[in-house]
Design goal:
single chain; mainly alpha; 2 helices; membrane; transmembrane helix; transmembrane
């Protein structure tokens, strides 16, 4: 049987690893291109969803 707080400690460690990974990318100057790629993909996804909603809306009329 596991102690009660074991799962919370693992989650805290995972969050700490994520913070360190983002900090390392930021220090190396690699975070900015990654953010631009995420923003570009987000814009593309938003336009795609808008086009799909428009097609569904026209079909319902």
């Amino acid at each position: 049987m596991r102690p009660h707080g074991q799962r919370e400690e693992k989650t805290d460690m995972e969050a700490m690893y994520l913070v360190f990974a983002v900090a390392a990318l930021c220090c190396l100057g690699l975070l900015t291109p990654l953010l631009y790629a995420v923003l570009a993909a987000g814009g593309l996804l938003a336009r795609l969803l808008y086009a799909i909603m428009t097609l569904i809306g026209r079909g319902a009329r």
